[in-house]
Specification:
alpha+beta; 7 helices; globular; EC 1.16.1.6; cobalt; flavoprotein; Cyanocobalamin reductase / alkylcobalamin dealkylase
Length: about 210
Amino acid sequence: KVGWYNAVLQPAFHLPYPDDTLAFVVLSTPSMFDKALKPFVKKERLKIIRDPVDQCISHHLSRVKEKFPDQRVDVMFDYEMLPSRKPKFLAQTAAHVAGAAYYYQRKDVKLDPWGKKKIFGVCIHPKYGGWFAIRGLLLFPDIQVPFLEQPAPVDCVSTEEKRIELLEQFNFHWQDGRYRDIIDVKERYSEEQKAYFATPPAERFRLLGLAQ
């Protein structure tokens, strides 16, 4: 429910919907690369003019909207900004309140070792660890769900030591991706997918065989 999200944030970040409004957080799993992105690039090769992943997600979520012709469906993407340069929604907070993934933050560590350093939080999924992404939000403004019970996210990094290790790796060594394997995972990115996301965005077109 939108109210779960708004309840944990400053008013400046609130979503402008009634508290009981139904919303879905959209995640991409490791198999997205082979099952969605590559077929999309093959089919839409000539129409790809910006980030291929963003266009692929947009394409698939617009198809979801088409499944509900009688409903208003508002879509927000993780990369969208408001004119104020604030993100349209805070993806990790949304995933946490929806019970989709646990958002580990500095406040989850009792004996904070970082002093005045800025420490960013990170979501970990109980099945995919850090090998997933939060891609968007689907909102159904005409559907109110006062009866919906809030599921708690799975606290899969439950020890103080592991949480410190996770936040250290994510904040100071994120390039090597070790934080993604903080728990045993069921599936991770393929080598091809790792190479794609490790490549600077401007050079990714070439990897997919697209003209810049």
